[in-house]
Design brief:
Elements (H helix, E strand, L loop, with lengths): L24 H15 L4 E6 L6 H13 L4 E6 L7 H11 L8 H17 L3 E6 L7 H10 L10 E7 L2 H6 L5 H4 L2 E6 L5 H15 L7 H11 L3 H17 L7 H7 L7
Helix pairs in contact: 3-4, 8-9, 9-10, 9-11, 10-11
Length: about 270
């Protein structure tokens, strides 16, 4: 095997970089459902729900990047929905859409509605992406439900794409939020990777970084066993094993490297 080049960064970064997202067959289905909601202007999609470490933020940013690049779309992303007031959240969203700030909540909401209607008439699709959506409180969820009332006879004027932990599902499926829950167009829960997908993800990350895959088949099997197929845990194990291999001056990662790495990283 040819030695891998010395890299300034790890090929296995856990940062939510959409460019390094490995798209599994099941993830293709997740993306297809979200695209259906956005493209057909159906309103609300819970595009990526899952436990910690499942890659929800990366999936959301992948979709955001895709639609931000479209000329017929107007997009914004809220990475963490922490707002002191409901009016503050509304003003933040309006500011991202370059809507003039208003002094009252009602006036600001009217300005947003006018913007959405004008955008629709101009052939633009407005898309709001919200990450860490489990942090939304009931009032903020009600605000989102109100956004979905902005519609024509056929289409929603704003598409809302949520990603969050599984507690978001439980929060939505309550008496207080049943009106919003009933308006969810599509819904996806991210599953752990299979052994085959784990191997393919490792190979993809190496290819993306421009290096030869230093992991033996047995090492990749061990990664799956230790990580239980959770993407962030896979990357943590691979990153440390790769660094240990590099420090040892070797160019092959065997199961021993994974076994040595496992106690040193926090796997989900």
């Amino acid at each position: 095997m040819v030695a891998s080049p010395k890299l300034d960064t790890t090929p296995f970064s856990i940062s939510p970089n959409p460019n390094s997202l490995y798209i599994t067959p099941s993830l293709k289905g997740v993306l297809a459902k979200a695209r259906f909601t956005i493209n057909k202007r159906q309103g609300l999609t819970c595009a990526a729900l899952g436990d910690v470490g499942m890659g929800k933020s990366t999936v959301l940013r992948y979709l955001y990047g895709e639609y931000a690049a479209k000329e017929n779309c107007v997009t914004t992303l809220i990475p963490t929905p922490k707002f002191p007031t409901l009016f503050g959240m509304l003003k933040y969203i309006c500011s991202d859409f370059e809507i003039e700030p208003k002094r009252s909540y009602v006036a600001q909401q009217d300005a947003l509605q006018e913007f959405l209607l004008q955008s629709y008439q101009n052939g633009k699709n407005v898309v709001l992406f919200i990450d860490e959506a489990q942090l939304l409180d009931n009032q903020q969820l009600e605000l989102i439900r109100g956004f979905l009332n902005f519609e024509t006879h056929e289409h929603k004027l704003i598409q809302i794409v949520l990603a969050g932990q599984l507690e978001l599902r439980d929060k939505l499926n309550t008496e207080k939020n049943k009106a919003l829950y009933s308006r969810i167009s599509t819904y996806s829960v991210l599953d752990p990777l299979t052994p085959e997908e784990t191997k393919a993800m490792i190979e993809y990350r190496c290819s993306y970084a421009g290096i030869n895959n230093p992991f033996t088949d047995e090492a990749m099997e061990t990664v799956y066993i230790k990580s239980k197929g959770i993407p962030r845990s896979i990357l943590k194990l691979c990153a440390l094993a790769y660094e240990m291999m590099d420090m040892a001056g070797e160019n092959t990662i065997t199961p021993d490297y994974i076994e040595d790495s496992a106690p040193e990283v926090a796997v989900e």
